Amino acid sequence: MDLYLLEAILNGIMLGGLLALLALGLNLIFGVIDVVWICYAELVMAGMYAIYWLHAVYAWPFLLACVVAIALVALFGLVLHRLIIEPILGSAPINQLLATGGMLFFLQSLATLLFGTDFRNVGIRLPIIELGDIDLSFARLLAFITALVGAAGLYLFLARTYLGTAIRAIAQDREIMGLMGVDQRRIYLITSAIGGGLAGLAACLLVLQYDVHPFIGLTFGPITFMICVLGGLGNMFGGVVAAFVMSQIISIVGYYFSVEISYVLAFVLFIVLILVRPRGILAR
Amino acid sequence: MTDMRMAAGVGLAVLIALPLLLPSYFLHIVIQVLLLGLIYTAWGFMGRFGLVSLGHGAFMGVGAYTSSLLWNLYGVTPWLGIPAGMALAVVLAMVIGYPCFHLRIVGHYFALVTLALGQVVALLIIAGRDITGGSLGMTPNAVGTSWIALQFQDRTQFYFVALALWLAVLGIRAWASRGMRRAALEAIGEDETAAEAAGINVLREKLRVFAISAAITAAGGSVFAQYIMYLNPETVSGVGISLQIVFAAIAGGMYSALGPTVGALLTLTLTESLRVLFGTSFIGAANTIYGILLILFIIFMPRGILGVVERLLELRPRPQAAPAE
Amino acid sequence: MLQVSGLSADYGSFRALFEVSLAVEAGETVAVIGPNGAGKTTLMRVISGMLPPHSGALAFEGRSLAGLAAHRIVELGIAHVPENRRLFPRLTVEENLRMGAYLPSARASFAERLGWAYEHFPRLRERRHQIAGTLSGGEQQMCAIARALMSKPRLLLLDEPSAGLAPLVVQQVFDLVRAIAEEGYTVLIVEQNVRQVLDLVDRAYLLEVGRIALAGSAGELKQSDVIRRSYLGL
Fold first, then answer.
1. Which of B294, B300, B301 would you mutate first to test chain A, the one with the most A CBs within 10 A?
2. CATH of domain C1-77+195-234
3. Are B105 and A97 in contact (CB < 8 Å)?
């Protein structure tokens, strides 16, 4: 086999880890509690900028910058829900999409205002692992492992804890949550914070491999939604599998053709996937 | 009713006289308001009934690039190029719309599909960089003033083209809003299953409105490209323009005829003022404000500015009719 | 135990309850009967906190329930089995029961409560890992009642438990309610099924078009002309 193709496949697997990590937070928000954060990728971008700012500009230790970034984005998720989603929770979900669309606009433009449109790099070079003639990115391996651990952790949390069960329940019947003694508002807020935190976590790993710029959300956002849908909304492990399928497609197609074509294919697949989803979950 | 007619008449007279009244720079803004306004209005055809599209940039791009490429590569006049773009846009709308509507994909899922569509078109334009110029964009070959090429050195002529188009779109909106058709779409927007049960051909109505919306948007995109004499995937088909369409239509008020145009006025004035006041050092400022405004509008003013104004006007006491003797 | 005085409430834009007053003493089983649209479900929802009242007083064990959110009212010891069961359709039977025990006080004794529930509802134990949405109507009703009892409430509100169930199943459900009442639970049950419920309860109220039309012991109501003619078809 062509060695470069093999490398593409392997790095595709590693990219899968990254995409899986990205999908975790969105799967929780969009897949489990059924709230639409179209600006999810921009939350990740915010995390990336936070790390860049703290580490590359203010020379904080990288790990500290990461922890702070995760906390910040978690807080942002909480605020996003409280101020924007909560007032419109009862109306059509399209409103959530539009309102968070406004947030998407806002975050992109704010980033442009604050940092300009150039690409910023955190300046960390993680080692490349060499397996014979093939180069593997250590950063991607790290992302891969984090994604698996994250998916497992989230799955256990949702399946085995009271809070997790409540989170799963709230999208199924919000109205009677109070009758279970559950403060539904708290559930949404906690879940939003966790979702934001997961976005921050993804940012930590993304920033090791990609330069951040205000429009980076546009490259990752739609793919992330697509992975959630493909893997089954709310299915953490499904999301991981879907991420790997998608990353392989992007990697291999990108290798043979061009980056743009690989994404075109990805988006076309997205459209096909939404069409193919079982009817019952659709017309709400 | 006669009040409305008189107001419309006066408005029309003012619009026609505008080139005489306004300096060239402002006329430039007005032309853009009209062209973008008609695109936003076309978006509103669908939006007001719950079919929110986040990918209308796709149709704009298809229209603009089709007519411009046909002109640049084959010397085909925009008078043919624009309809070609419209036809292509309609085909695209059907290809996406048919499976979506047949499978009852609505609301935010439909929005996500259109978002993906917008991305696909933008990426294809970039990928075809050998022909389209990719991200760097392209310019239609300039030939000075020519009706065949739909290019005019004098802004005034373009103004009337834009005005005519804008009025035509308003006319289409009025025609489409008449009686049964509008009632059918409203019913579909409220409860599809009930509408279907009442005998409304949901699929056909939705496809129809989608096609009309796509066609007009494509036409608007083409003419806009002709006017600005430059196109690139970001300005005529990216996510940015798609979201801007949505924002302007909602902010102005997509439930009223003039709402989206008011939205265009709002966004253009905002962008221009910011550019004049702060120069290019504040790129991104406009969108930051759009973002916040969109959020505020969705939460507090889902019917947009015009919606609020209309509601205020309705609250004015009506003059009492004289009692019959 | 439960004191409702002069309660008025709206359902959407119209008034559903007009100055309703009733009382439930500890250990009693009381029914509120009446036709469709009488306001019975609205009454339940106001008591459990799902719906805010327009005016009137609501007190539980001397404590006013005014302005309390539903999840606080559950903490006080009132459990509501809503109309149409309202199980979480994609959770399993056991997960639904777990939700019933969400309160910190209930969590502590979850294992014990679960054992109690499976003892009284053996069919649920068989189906403990089955997805709730796939249960039969009767099983769902059992599960919903069991879920409400997981928090060891002092007052159980049952909203139309017989709705949509076959007569034989209704009998089973009512037998269950009787067994629960005999264990000492206080039950307020709202029902359209007059005949069977009057055999179950100590006292009853007749609610018609938002007002209490009749009140008395079950025996008295069974003898009343109004009831016999309009609701028992005699």
1. B294
2. 3.40.50.300
3. no
